[in-house]
Amino acid sequence: MKELNEHIVCFLCAGYFIDATTITECLHTFCKSCIVKYLQTSKYCPMCNTKIHETQPLLNLKLDRVMQDIVYKLVPGLQHSEEKRIREFYQSRGLDRVTQPSGDDTVGGDPMGLPYSTFDHSRAHYFRYDEHVSLCLEKLSSSKDKSKAMLQQKYVRCSVRAQIRHLRRVLCHRLGLSLQHVQILFDNEPLPDHMTMKQLWLSRWFGKPAPLLLHYSIKDKRR
């Protein structure tokens, strides 16, 4: 058994695999909850440092049912204790347990690392595991701008895939203004709605320290 331990023990928690999950890029295996939590702050394999995915590493994880069956057969009582723990978890919260469909081995749809449950993909946060960029939003000083509206928190961290239009909507929501009254600028130049944060960073801020400095202006509501 000692000779097999290194093959059935998770590198991250040093315990036996639970919901064994394998990285498809390098074939290293971990507990599902361990690797999902680890990849919230990294996109590299913790064992060999292979890049798993540029922006969404969870897409390249796959549940390893064969490995999990082997672990349960080799470690007496592990499956029973895990089933008991899961059952108590759901009972303590008054939830109905939902079993995962047998043909679905992907991990990306269950980012919390808990036993499979129903998930509303229409409300999913698809940018959660992207690379992020830090922004500083300063109000543009102008004699024409009579508005007193100003952000209380000017620092923002968002996905590199977010677009200027997303940023404008956030500003409008925080300032209580309509979309047509807010404009985002870089060096006094209005930025197009379709431009992404990655395009902006590479074309205007590459090589400079974070945060990327942007300005916003508020148009007169009477116009």
What does this structure look like?
The chain has 223 residues and is an alpha+beta fold. It has 2 domains: 2-122, 2-Layer Sandwich (Herpes Virus-1), CATH 3.30.40.10; 132-218, Roll (Ubiquitin-like (UB roll)), CATH 3.10.20. 27% of the residues lie in helices and 17% in strands. It has helices spanning 2-8, 32-38, 65-74, 78-93, 164-175, 197-205; strands spanning 20-23, 29-31, 61-63, 132-139, 155-159, 182-186, 189-190, 212-218. Strand 6 and strand 7 (189-190) form a beta hairpin. The longest helix is centred in the middle third of the chain and has 16 residues, at 78-93. It is elongated, with a radius of gyration of 24 Å. Mean pLDDT is 81; it is low at 109-124. It is found in: Nucleus. Keywords: Metal-binding, Nucleus, Repressor, Transcription, Transcription regulation, Zinc, Zinc-finger. One of its GO terms (biological process) is negative regulation of transcription by RNA polymerase II. This is Polycomb group RING finger protein 1. One of its GO terms (cellular component) is PRC1 complex.
Using the coordinates shown, work out and report the CATH topology of the largest domain: Herpes Virus-1
Biggest beta sheet summary = 5 strands, mixed
Overall tally of domains = 2
The H/E string reads HEEHEHHEEHEEHE
CATH class of the largest domain: Alpha Beta
CATH superfamily of the largest domain: Zinc/RING finger domain, C3HC4 (zinc finger)
How far do the termini sit from each other? 78 Å
Number of helices: 6
* pLDDT < 50 runs, ≥5 residues: 109-124
Give the helix/strand class: alpha+beta
Shape descriptor reads elongated
Give the integer mean of the pLDDT values.
81
Q: Count all strands and give the number.
A: 8
Radius of gyration: 24 Å
Across the major sheet, the strand order is 5-4-8-6-7
Helix content: 25-40%
Which percent range describes the beta-strand content? 15-25%
InterPro entries: RAWUL (IPR032443), Znf_RING (IPR001841), Znf_RING/FYVE/PHD (IPR013083), Znf_RING_CS (IPR017907)
Protein name: Polycomb group RING finger protein 1
Organism: Emberiza fucata
GO cellular component, one term: PRC1 complex
